[in-house]
Amino acid sequence: MQMITTHRGTDFDGLASVIAGTLIYPGAVPVLPRAINPNCKAFLSIHKDLFETHTIKEIDLSRVDRLIVVDTSKWSRLERMNELQERGVEVFLWDHHEDVCDLNPAWKCTESMGANITLMLREIQKQDIPLTPMQATLFLIGLYEDTGNLTFPSATAEDAHAAGFLLENKANLSILSAFLQPAYGQKQKNILFEMLKTAPRMKIRNLSVSVHIINIDGHVNNLSLVVHMYREILNLDVAVAIFVHKEHEDCIVIGRSNADEINIGQIMRSMGGGGHPGAGSAMIKGANPRKLKEWVLELMRGNQQTSVMVRDLMSYPVFTVTPDMSMAQVLEFLEEKGCTGFPVVDNDRLVGVISRRDFKKLKKSDQMRSPVKAFMSTKNITIDPDKSPTEAARLMVKYDIGRLPVVKDGRIVGIMSRSDTMRYFYDLLPD
Prior knowledge:
Elements: E1 2-5, H1 12-24, E2 29-30, H2 38-47, E3 66-70, H3 82-87, E4 90-95, E5 107-110, H4 116-126, H5 133-147, H6 157-168, H7 173-179, H8 186-198, E6 202-204, E7 207-216, H9 223-233, E8 238-245, E9 251-257, H10 264-270, E10 274-276, E11 279-284, H11 289-301, H12 310-313, H13 327-337, E12 341-346, E13 349-355, H14 389-399, E14 403-408, E15 411-417, H15 418-426
Parallel strand pairs: 1-2, 1-3, 3-4, 4-5, 7-8
Antiparallel strand pairs: 6-7, 8-9, 9-11, 10-11, 12-13, 14-15
Helix pairs in contact: 1-4, 1-5, 5-6, 5-7, 8-9, 14-15
């Protein structure tokens, strides 16, 4: 068995490189350390069904005859690999650092590069391996994180070419900006300080709201981060900033919302921009900023509750299984329906959820004859069909689950999956 892994404290470049390894080495098992960066953990919690990974506890190390290591070249940075090191297992290495290597690899690709994923994308292009939009997006997040959006001195021309290749493969920049923490410099600090000095507040529909007009000099990067921090520091439900360039009257309107009642994306679309319910922006040329502020407030006071509810996105009819069905029967049913999991129902009452990941609990072949109730999850987290997609996403992240049974009057009326929420937030509709 081939296994792919990376360093402790896995960042997006390490995660992207592990997933890229599964494309270059088909059948290889991707393994992540327990310690991964919070932003990577958040990404995986939402996209887990698209990027299946394992922990070292789930792997029988005696079966591993090749270890593929990415984004590091030291045994000390790998998690619980002593057994493989002592056994002298064959190592393949992909690393863009100039560190001293102690892995004694049988094969290696080590070259100074802005991001490790760039090295692996070279091989992916050489083999003409197709990428999905979400794979391209993850790879671009890894590339941008390690190169500072191609601004770090370590960034190379090949990193830039790799970024272009990923954009050609439909990498989604909206998803990228949602998970990358951009740089925060002196210009941003000064603007945030000016906003906090006055910080106008008001109540709209019982929500704490601030709409601020700020003059700026020249071009300033990462204004969205300033608005995000402004909202968090003041504990606002909604923050909107209208940034006005002094040398001309062009305005950048950026909003952040933590309230389902006010859909920032819808407001910004009304102003000629775009976004999603929690964040959005619009560029308006030759506008009067005070009139823009009145416009934003008018839109907020209107009915901005999104017309899209869970009931509009959920999947139905609902395929269910009974607690006494065998795991073998359920697996066959999963394959037949092309699903990743089912609610477990007894006399029309939800008693659990069974998913493909639950099959990892099976250690012996005869356990396939065991009933579903022995392995199902009994955390019955559900959602009402009249709730928002934002609430569904929050529950999925909070409880680390891939699907929510939609329940009305005690009966299951649908299923809300990660794929359903992604289609809403990222507009990832099938062609």
